[in-house]
């Protein structure tokens, strides 16, 4: 399976961290990343605001309209590839959050659910989820820290290895 990349390079954790100062968008750019544009769907919306909570629909690891990987982690997909796909999925979730609140600096992550299509004996779903959590904290700082659940599932839409759903709020 080809390695998932974002822009000109891989989304894997950089050798140096993003600066801890500046805006969240500056930190994102320092990592060599940009928020993607999200496509629309006639059956659901990417986010829904209820009171002060913003519910982000499950996001797959799409880039430029292309699903970056397919298969089951622990059988077809290696751990590091799944971690890269989780980073892509969480970037899409962040893009939906920005649609809702208007500015990356206003996003605070409350809870994240990471679903990993994996073999029954895989057992490292939390390691896949860690990649998404790390990226959120690098970009949003304390606003990126969140409650989290990582689960293994038998299958996901379009045979994606990972899907991420979030609840956030505006600050």
TrEMBL record:
Pfam families the record matches: YjgF_endoribonc
Residue ranges of domain Endoribonuclease L-PSP/chorismate mutase-like in the record: 26-162
Domain of life: Bacteria
Protein name (database record): LysR family transcriptional regulator
Species per Swiss-Prot/TrEMBL record: Streptomyces lomondensis
Gene3D superfamilies, sorted: RutC-like
InterPro entries xrefs: Endoribo_LPSP/chorism_mut-like, RutC-like_sf
